[in-house]
Amino acid sequence: MQSKIHPALQALALIFTPLLILLLINYIFSVTGKVENSNYLTATIKMSIFVIPNVLYIILYKYKLGYLGLLVALMATLTAVNSSSELEIFNSFSLYSINFLYFLFMMAVIYLAYYVVNGFKLKNVIFIIGGIIAHTLFFIGLFAINKMPLARNIIRDIMYRGFNLYLMVGLAIGIALLFFELPQAKQIQDFQDDDEDEL
Fold it and tell me: CB 151: neighbour CB atoms within 10 A?
């Protein structure tokens, strides 16, 4: 199915499908009383900052433009810092530096998950686990740099939010990747080629 879809349509599907899935999930949460009815659209917009930079990097790396990931990380950092009023309690320099490192780390996770590892399920699992680790470590780092106390309940809340966030984001991107043709992982392909030469 993937090869029959034009590359431009594949890229558009990879960008917009996760957002539609997250919108649907947040709407279901609002209907079932998990969040307020007026907040499902806002929640989706906030979560888009964890989707769009990641899928852009997947697209850029496929077409050998991975170096533009630095620009994507910079734009994502500016958007994340300037659009969140919850982060105003932190020092501006620490916010920009930690968020930039956060998005760069996620690009490394994406490279590992989608361009090194084979197996569709394994790719998604690695992305989700990497996202949870990134979310937890960098938010704890943000508190530490600003010398703010880190109570056990704060760490638990950071981990819980990271788990919920990347479970949904990973699911959404995983479904969208059904419409996007990823190249075969290089390491596995090279290993198979070597075996064939020996035969």
Answer: 10
